[in-house]
Write the structure tokens for this entry.
Amino acid sequence: MSKESHHRLIILGSGPAGYTAAIYSGRANLKPLLIQGMQPGGQLTITTEVDNFPGFEHGVQGPELMEKMRAQAERFDTQMVYDTVTAVDLSGSPFRLTCDSGDLYTCDALIIATGASARWLGLAAEERLKGFGVSACATCDGFFFKGQEIAVVGGGNSAAEEAIFLTNFASKVYLIHRRDRLRAEQVMQDRVRNNAKIEPVWNVVVEDILGEPGNGGVNGIRVKNVKTGESKDLAVTGVFVAIGHSPNTAIFGDALKKDEAGYLITHPDSTATDIPGVFAAGDVQDRVFRQAVTAAGTGCMAALEAERYLNDLEEKSSHS
């Protein structure tokens, strides 16, 4: 049987931004409700070694890091709900959230930390080898491929940037693209062309990624020429898919301002949206950095701003 409950603060999303917002707002005695969504822990739960999050000198497994964050949030009286929001009404206060279970939650303040999802190629091997040589984040995982030959798939700015970045570690980077030239800005194309470690592979699509998780992970990538139909294998130990990210903002429709790529727009130096009491943190509003530590930072900002908003709301109510 569905139920309805009201909370001063609700947090949507359980990645680094959501959990950090919960820790800070919990410490402020706001007793937040956190709705975890379809993938509790967010993108880090499909990452193996995380070597760039401060405080872990020997690195930490992605799922372990998120479990530690969740436990810390619960320590400060965050109520966790394993459910998915399917409809949002931000037209008036309190805000109304309907979940897949049928439960209805209302709140005075809302922090949106629903993240962004990497676009993938849709291959079975890609799913099987995520965290075992297949990645969508060069900044997160490039360090693990020192002196190795790897491949980047894509043709836009993201692919060019990741290929260039990965030359700091890899001995060779194949840049796989379905056309005969990149879609990236000219300056990025020039940088790719002038980098001796990058070898573009034109007019090909990825047919398969070779290797097994329990046997060393990725050991090759199979590409097919779109003009000749000929297939060939490239010996690589890592495959970075760089065909873009999609922010998880569909449920908000036109209620909140978004940029052309669908990321939520927040005020400068703030996590506040154009709706008072609604804040956005993490990858759902950050199309540039997309790092766990930056997401956590904006989660902290959102919690502090939400606390200030709720205190002001309470003060106005007491004077009315």
The mean pLDDT is 94. The CA atoms of residues 250 and 262 lie 8 Å apart. The longest strand covers residues 4-12. The two ends are 37 Å apart (CA to CA).
